Amino acid sequence: MNKNILFYTCALLLLLPGLAFAGDFVFQTIDNLSGTGEMVIAPARNDGINRLYATGFGLFEYTWQDSVWQKATIQSGTGAPVALTAGFGRNDGIWRLYGATGGKKLYEYSYEGGVWNAALVESTINVDGSVKLGDIKNDDTIRIVAGGSDYVTMIYTYQTAGNTWRPETLDVNTNDIQGIAIGKGRNDDTNRVYTGGAIHSFMNIVLVIMFGVNIL
Q1: Could you give the strand order of the β-sheet that contains 152-159, starting from the edge strand earlier in sequence?
Q2: Which CATH code of 2.130.10.10, 3.40.50.10540, 3.30.450.40, 3.30.930.10 fits the domain covering 31-211?
Q3: I want to staple 61 with a disulfide (CB 3.0 to 4.6 A). Which of 44, 72, 157, 216 is the partner?
Q4: Within its chain, how far is the Cα of 24 from the centroid?
Q5: Strand 106-112 and strand 96-100: pairing?
Q6: For residue 216, how many C-alpha atoms fall within 13 Å in the half-sphere facing its CB?
Q7: pTM for the structure as a whole
Q8: Ordered per-residue pLDDT tens for the chain, 216 residues
Q9: CA distance linking residue 116 with residue 75, whole number of Å
Q10: Which pairing describes strands 68-76 and 58-65: parallel, antiparallel, or unpaired?
């Protein structure tokens, strides 16, 4: 057999698995964003249409329309959220976005009258690491759970009577909260909150390096 034919035949056989895999997925760049990014998909305009919401030096909304992605800016600049979720935070069946910034602010975004409105939920505690919604007290009431670089995990319950958010401290520890999950982790029909993050303690790091002893 001709050596060239043999070479190209072997090369084709080696490429076939990769070509088959590549054919399963089509990759498309929707946008190029800078900064810390998080995404959520939700019908946040309450019109039955799912949209993609993403952070990255801004909060942006992407709608698939006429075979292209249409982009809208909800909030721009470095004060926009870095942590993001969506759901029925007020327990009224209306979708809203909830985003925490790196500047001690937790916002609720509502789409009303053709525009996005932002309302403050928290403005004194850094809850910029993670934001989630869930029935954490198992009482059929959705609450916001948020945590961040103030080493505290907070709960926020919407009070219909006064149109206010009632804060509660869920936990205080040495972790910079970077992740929160809510669900039936024990498979016993009871929702629980799970948090995780990085420990920041300069003295602890120094002692571990010098003496191999962890004081925490």
Answers
A1: 130-134, 143-147, 152-159, 164-172
A2: 2.130.10.10
A3: 72
A4: 27
A5: antiparallel
A6: 13
A7: 0.81
A8: 555 555 555 555 555 555 545 568 888 899 988 877 899 999 999 999 999 999 999 999 999 999 999 999 999 987 889 999 999 999 999 999 999 998 899 999 999 999 999 999 999 999 999 999 999 999 999 999 999 999 999 999 999 999 999 999 999 988 899 999 999 999 999 999 999 987 654 443 344 444 444 333
A9: 9
A10: antiparallel
* Phi, psi values for residue 69, rounded to 5°: -90, 125
Strands 83-87 and 68-76: unpaired
Of the candidates 46, 174, 197, 28, the residue with the CA atom closest to the CA atom of residue 109: 46
Q: What's the token pair of residue 1? A: 């057999």
Q: Which residue has the tokens 């992407």?
A: 62
Paired tokens of 34: 């800078």
Contacts of 141 (CB under 8 A, 6+ apart): 91, 135, 157
Residues near 212 by beta carbon (within 8 Å), at least 6 away in sequence = none
Closest by CA position to 53, among listed 35, 66, 72, 68: 72
